[in-house]
Amino acid sequence: MRRLVLPLILLIAAMTLTLNSCILFNPAPIWKDLPLQIVPLGQTLNIDVSQYVSDKNDQYISFKIISGIGEIIDTSYVYTPSPTELNDSSTKEIEVILRATDSKGAFADKILKIIIVRSPLVSKIPDSYRTVGQELTIDISTYIELNPDEMLSMLSGPGLLNDNTYTFTPSATGTYTITLGVYNGSLLTALQQFNIYVLEHTFQINVSEYNSGSSVEGAQVAAYDRNGNLVETKLTDPSGKVYFDQQTYSKFILTKTGHAITTIELAGNTGPLSIDATLRPYVFIQPATNDITLQIELSDEDGKVLESTEDGTYSLVDDQEITVEATATSIAFPISHMYLKIGSVPGAEYLSSPRYYEEGNHIQGQIQLSGFSGSTILYVDAYDNNDNRYLCIIPLFVQNSKQNASKPYIVEENTDSKYSVRSCTVSVGTEYYSYSSYLSTSNPTPTPLGAPKGMNLYVELYWKAWENSTQKRYTNPPSGYRIYRSFDGVNYYHVATVPPELSIYRDSSSQLECGKRVWYAVSSVYSFGESPKTVLGSVVPLPMVYITTVNPNDNATNVSTTPTFSWHFTGLESYSSEVTYTYDLWLYDTTVAEKLFYASKDGLNTFSTTEEYVTIDFPSYRWIKYGSSNYITALQPGHPYEWAPELLVGEWLDEKNNSLSAAINCNYNSKYLAPTIPPEKYYLFVTGNN
């Protein structure tokens, strides 16, 4: 027995040391590279540095400035250069050392580099898309004219600059920002920035039943090469996504039992592309094939037909207007309607990013190219009466006209409300709308196209239009606005371009998810380039809100003539500390048509609470007859009634992130800024004798 004592003591000591070392060892926070920041005089730099730090133990991280100027507000570094910061210089470079400290005291420092400039930076070099391992080469002289005594130099970002040729072969996905400096001797006189978006796959197809609707899992996606040969077939994953890595595909055909067929044609070399596609349930019969065909013609202002290059790309200039004309044919079913849109898939941004729509098999529209630069896409879309779809994707390359840079408008956040970003989770399918021409701010009358049943999720963005901004008197009006989306707050991807008369955008991409935070930014675009992006904010879309434990329940009898109505809000328990519920209550006399009453208290007929349990005591409210000022104080004995809230909304106002997230179960009387949605159920009850 004594022989075991010493080994046992040693074992206990070793375990104790191991445990103590695990407790005592606390790895420091890990910084990502902080991108070079360029801030013009009169502007404020505000960067959420928490997006660039991680902690292995998921501890709370605080920040402070070790050296340099500026201040830390919550998790953001904020700095506004003074009007005299530059004196007689055109630029000034500064460094700030930031420290990230976790809750146990471990810390790490990082240098933030800032360049102060007199005027906002205008980007003339268009953004590029590549996949991992795919080389990019850009002749910078195509976009920037240098004087003989000027030279270019790399200031930040990956890649190499040899004379005026930039090259880069990415090894990882993400958004890479490249900053170039124009030097006259040792003096930095100008700056240029552009982005490289590196995707993991050549094609990512995001499949949903309808725009902003639920994803389609298990859809078969067949990929065809340029000779029409079937190369491979894959199935969409649970999130409705499927990926392909070949660059030689020219067509994808999407099928699933119970659904119509969607065909996606690539009319040229698009480069890496993420495509939001729909695969709708069929209307009449399960189709065996999709026989829709498209004839498409592009022409210039003089009516001259435009020809594409050898790889199928149309080379254009941003001060051009082109006419696009398309005709669709189908044998099995007549063509129902067609779309025409530049920059993003039609329908995905209904009510915001404009597109052309026509019923029947012919569509024609004039496309203004101002606001677009570099590689972009023209989409032509046709549906038949069975909801089969044919989407043609045409690559364009839009060259900026070499105008001298002027002062751009730096997009300002919306100030009409407490947020600039609003997500809406809606309990039923939202109707889609068409307009005879591009959307305008004159409130045209929409024509509903009809919407499938199911859940909807979309995000609305609001910003201040140039004509309503504080910069109107000293900046130029933009030719459009570019919209960017990010799922990590660091890597932003361009998703749409809208015309200058719009200051609202609706993102209904199938990549949006409840509980998944998403960030948005907006820039203004010109013939001479693009302004810096303004981050509007971020939002976490809420899941749907429901009610349970309803009283009086359906088919209840012997209910009091002055009943108490109650229910329990469910579905948003994970957000209970953030959510406010908004509701109303309606009561119907089932024996008399149009005899209905609504609850009112203190002059209000809509109520809000942060509590999950709601109780409405009949005598404490005034029950006003709809359409009059008359009201009742009790129900009739032995009489049938139906009741339900006709407004049920859960909201999270996130002022820190400049956003509002809403879950909208019903909105029957359009009291809430959202589609009209009837209650899922009315509850029938019969009163007793008292």
Describe the structure.
This protein is mainly beta. Among the domains are: about 30-115, Immunoglobulin-like, CATH 2.60.40; about 130-200, Sandwich (Immunoglobulin-like); about 410-540, Immunoglobulins (Immunoglobulin-like); about 545-685, Sandwich (Immunoglobulin-like). The chain has one helix and 56 strands. Strands 18, 19, 21, 22, 25, 27, 28, 30 and 31 form a nine-stranded mixed β-sheet that branches. Strands 32, 33, 36, 39, 46, 49, 54 and 55 form an eight-stranded mixed β-sheet that branches. Strands 44-56-53-47-48-51-52 form a seven-stranded mixed β-sheet, with no helix packed on it. The longest helix is centred in the first third of the chain and has 23 residues, at about 1-25. The termini are far apart.
Quote the distance from N terminus to C terminus: 84 Å
Shape: globular
Report the mean per-residue pLDDT as an integer: 87
CATH class descriptor of the domain at 546-687: Mainly Beta
* Beta-strand proportion: over 45%
